[in-house]
Design brief:
Protein name: THAP-type domain-containing protein
Pfam families: DDE_Tnp_4, HTH_Tnp_4, THAP
Structural class: alpha/beta
Cofactor: a divalent metal cation
Organism: Porites lobata
InterPro entries: HARBI1_dom, THAP_Znf, THAP_Znf_sf, Transposase_HTH_dom
Length: about 500
Amino acid sequence: MANDHCSVNCCTNDKRNESGKDLSFFNFPSNETQRSQWIAAIKRDEGPHFEIKKGCTLVCSAHFKPSDMFKSITGRTRLKAGAVPSQFQWTKACNERSKNKLQNLKEINEMQAQEERRQSIVDSFCQDVELKQVTEQVTVQEASAGAEPMEEMNAELENENIQPAELSAEEQIEILKAKIKDLEEEVEDLKGSRFGAENISKDPELLSFYTGFVSKERFDSFYSWVEPYAKTMIKWSQIQRQRGKENYKRRRSCGNLALSLYDQFFLFMIRLRLGLLETDLGVRFNISKSSVSRIILTWANFLYTMLGQVPIWPTTAQIKNSMPECFKTIYPKTRVILDCTEIKVQRPSSKVLNSEFYSAYKSHTTLKCLVGIAPHGAVTFISSLYQGSISDKEITRRSGILSLIQEGDEVMADKGFLIQDLLEPKKATLTIPPFFSKTRSMQFTSKEVTETQQIARLRIHVERAIRRIKEYQIFDKVLPLSLAGSVNQIWTVCCLLTNFRGPLY
């Protein structure tokens, strides 16, 4: 509520209004000119000692604008909500609060810490100055007391730490030669301890363990045969880059590889013989895993091409000249001994492929191959790899061996090879163990027993040849599907490399 007079409730003044005018809000003039004069009189009446009374709740109407007030229905004057006086401040500037004890304690601690740091810097500086002075004094005393011993000591040190530039040319050459000799010995020691073909081939047992070659002479002889062609072979990376182009330039395969051709071939043979993983081979030869993969694929395709050009199917005359006595006396017309073998592969995700590759004999998804050997034990025929579900008769029909059989030849096989009808057009005969006949007596005759033993004793050689192939331990594990594009090449190379290991028996 607005008060009627300033001096009654909210203001005190040491001067009274000289004109004696009523300064209440109810006599507030309506004329603009009179209103201005009235406000000026109010300001003069307030004087320099105007102040708000302590505890006052009423305010003089002179301290509000006319727009801040309104008259109620009863005719009383009221202030509008949010009205602010325009002639004085509501609050006075308060004095700054005094700091509490905690703040005073923090300031004292900070001042003490600063003083301690300053004092420590001053003390360290003084100690450095004193130490320098003492050192100078000691140096002066030693120089005056022991000048001659110091000269002798310096001469000895100069002789011990003599520089090469102070020596004669001949002496410098001798020193450098000695250093070169030491470095050469270190290099030779490092070469001798490095894992590679040069070091492993020195030990025949290690060479046979890592590569399958029984001696260094055979290993070097085989490498010397393929080396001229290996220098110009196309790398696997080149084939990938140039795939889809009809013409591309042949470049050297060993140009940007860290390993020599000799070590590359050695790495490939280790992969076949021991089945080491590519990561392990990368660590052994200090190359990346991707480089190992490219080397293996390159050499697999290269050796597949090189060894595939060698005619391994012997003529009839060659078979007769190399036939062992055990065959000459019983089965002298034997041309080839056949048998099938299987290697396990990863299960494909496709249900159709899984059923095609599943082998009931191995109870696993496999790849099947037909292998043929001559009577003297050399591998003379290798078919491609087929699905594991294929039968022995069907793989014989598809493999192409029937085109190599001539009239009068004998083919020795196991009981599962019911291929007599396939050999009849060639006028060749099939030698297999006799079957048990239920129409006759419940046991074999003495002649059938003898025949079974004779055939089994001779046919076992093909099992031994297959065992040689399986000694390449890359086939011990389940082959991943990532090798599906090169598994035929790797299998064929392993089969043909067994012929370089010497006689089977």
